[in-house]
Write a structure and sequence with these properties.
Mean pLDDT: 96
Order of helices and strands: EHEHEHHEHHHEHEHHHEEE
Distance between the termini: 38 Å
CATH architecture of the largest domain: 3-Layer(aba) Sandwich
Number of helices: 11
Number of strands: 9
CATH topology of the largest domain: Rossmann fold
Strand content: 15-25%
CATH superfamily of the largest domain: HUPs
Helix content: 25-40%
Oligomer: single chain
Structural class: alpha/beta
Number of domains: 2
Bound molecules: pantoate
Length: 281
């Protein structure tokens, strides 16, 4: 496994690989790799000749300085995990390498980046789109892999690729959960022992909502979820939305549209956890 730090070096490497007719699968990450990330690498290995993983904690997608500073970093262990999966190349640029000049690009994804995460984390998706667009430009992958835990991010990346005619196939990958149901996230590492014990309650609530949705209207279901989460003294709900999986528009009733997803964000102390469940899938 080769580790590359410079844009020019990875570009040269990719050029040589492509000249040999090899296909490239790309998995962008911010490190602190868990089984969720590793499932993306495994899928990419099956579908491509070469797999490139990037590890870059992208400062411009954090709207909270503390969150950026406390984001878990363990590069040694990340590299071991990638090595074990036979990842071919790891791109690990530093901030200067990715942003030699302060980035100025402004993206507008219409409704998609104004709701949910877009509303509660202003500038977040601009930062994500900027870095992912740059990676696509540098690496020119055939396929790129994104987890469905960040469902809105996935939707926006699909839109980015359409809007800018980027010739890459976006491959969505299902959420990977701990055995107790907690969605895997690098942020789980920051939970205290007590918070970690409570955290699966988020998914348990989503599962109950899915099982019982017919008993409630959409508004009632959202209120029920809100009450259930806030009943848990360790948790504070930031938002819950029931939206169309394509447009991310909230719906008023279940007949409105077939593919609905419940998206939720919950704080445990200062740790912000995101999760979702598809209603009719
Ligand atoms: O999902 C993430 O880890 C990040 O948002 C991504 C896609 C690597 C961009 O920094």
């Amino acid at each position: 496994m080769k580790i590359i730090y410079k844009r020019s070096d990875i570009k040269d490497k990719v050029k040589a690989l492509k000249a040999n007719g090899l296909t490239i699968g790309f998995v962008p990450t911010m490190g602190a790799l868990h089984q969720g990330h590793l499932s993306l690498i495994k899928k990419a290995k099956l579908q491509n000749d070469i797999v490139i993983c990037s590890i870059f904690v992208n400062p411009i997608q954090f709207n909270n300085q503390q969150d950026l500073e406390k984001y878990p970093r363990d590069y040694e262990s990340d590299l071991k995990k990638l090595e074990n999966l036979d990842c071919d190349l790891v791109f690990m640029p530093d901030v200067e390498e990715m942003y030699p000049e302060p980035p100025t690009q402004k993206y507008d994804f219409g409704f998609l980046d104004k709701v949910m995460e877009g509303k509660f984390r202003p500038g977040h998706f601009n930062g994500v789109a900027t870095v992912v667009h740059k990676f696509f430009d540098i690496i020119e992958p055939d396929k790129a892999y994104f987890g469905e835990k960040d469902f809105q991010q996935l939707t926006i990346i699909k839109r980015l690729v359409k809007d800018y005619n980027i010739p890459v196939e976006i491959v969505p990958c299902p959420i990977v959960r701990e055995s107790d149901g907690l969605a895997m996230s690098s942020r789980n590492l920051r939970l205290t022992k007590e918070q970690r014990i409570q955290a699966p309650y988020i998914y348990q609530t989503l599962l109950k909502a899915k099982e019982n949705y017919k008993k409630f209207s959409v508004i009632e279901l959202k209120n029920w979820i809100k009450e259930e989460i806030n009943k848990n003294s360790f948790m504070k709900l930031e938002y819950v939305e029931i939206v169309d999986m394509q447009t991310l528009h909230s719906v008023n009733n279940y007949n409105d549209i077939k593919n609905l997803i419940i998206c939720i964000v919950v704080f445990l102390g200062e740790i912000r956890l995101i999760d979702n469940i598809k209603l009719f899938y």
